[in-house]
Amino acid sequence: MRGKAPGMNVGLVGCGYWGKNLLRNFHELGALGAVCDASEAHREVAARMAPGVPLYTDFEELLKSDIPAIALATPAVTHFQMASRALAAGKDVFVEKPLSLNVKEGEQLLKMRGDRILMVGHILEYHPACVKLVELARSGELGDLCYIYSNRLSLGKVRREENILWSFAPHDVALINRLAGEMPESVAAFGGAYLQNDVADVTVTNLSYPRGIRAHIHVSWLHPFKEQRLVVIGSQKMASFDGVTGELTLYDQRVEWQMGEPVPIKRDGVNVATSKAEPLKEECRAFLEAQKTRVQPLTDGQSGLEVLSVLESAQESLNQGGRVCPVARDFLPA
After folding, report:
1. Helices (DSSP H) in 140-208: which residue ranges?
2. Is 119 strand, coil or helix?
3. Is residue 13 within 8 Å of 39, Cβ to Cβ?
4. Where exactly are the structural domains of the chain?
5. pLDDT class for 220, splitting at 50, 70, 90?
6. What architecture is domain 125-280+308-326?
């Protein structure tokens, strides 16, 4: 099947668990040009959600069409192969996290990018509360950043093709790197596999940054309740982002030294007003804007490669029982 309606410039590949959300948003933005999925059931879902949008069963046929951009909502193990084929076909590419499954592949995608747009789905960076949190950190409102921790916990969805580190932690790594303004120089990761051999269900990753910031990321799909919380500790103020409610709270709290003694300064938290825009729609909008301006988006291939490097080193540490591992930082320029 060929052709696209004017303005419909994104071909979505994958209409499963997460792909349905991308389909809805690109369709609402008037940009959905086609959907490709080998599953008849998934194509039926697409037909109900976006009536009249062309449906493909063959990825290669979609690549031959005149649709200029591809969005990949497929298993992580397919990301490199499908993204590289789309770039080679001259398409702009949006790929869900992670960019690929190793740094070597990520570097190859950046080499192939050329003047194409290459964007990675690090959705937290488009959440209005997280955008505001980064603004607060950059403005000096929090003082010098000291420590950041993130919990991303729930019961399921358990995956078989990737462990919890690769499934949940990319979001947090991307945002913490953005807050720190740099990549970590080393990581140490610990975890356990309780449901499947060699597929970690729970991990805790400690990150050390060159300017002294420390962070830890706790992720699990074996947890009795859902918790998504990121806390930033600064020398002047503290902030907490609740990913379940979407709220950002600022605390004018710190520890001061008075007469040689550390004295906690405690005040009630204040909710920070932020836009109620849907983060995924903002992410999709950013991809469309990058296509229009030809300027790489915030979460471009370089950003995706940096996150990938952290994950790869964390996996190496996990494999070695928590040994501190350096993080590769010598990447191609953005």
Report:
1. 164-180
2. strand
3. no
4. 10-123, 125-280+308-326
5. very high
6. 2-Layer Sandwich (3.30)
Provide the residue type at 302 as one letter.
Q
Q: What DSSP string describes 194-215?
A: SSBTTB-SEEEEEEE-TTS-EE
Angle value at C-alpha 175, between 299 and 159, nearest 5 degrees? 85
Of the candidates 33, 38, 46, the one whose C-alpha atom is nearest the C-alpha of residue 75 is 38
Q: What are phi and psi of 323, to 5 degrees?
A: -60, 140
Neighbours of 147 (CB within 10 A): 14
What is the domain class of 10-123 according to CATH?
alpha beta
Residue 211 has pLDDT above 70, yes or no: yes
Supply the DSSP symbol for 314: H
> Which of 310, 100, 301, 302 minimizes the C-alpha distance to 184?
310
| Percent of the chain as helix, strand, coil, to the nearest 5 | 35, 30, 35
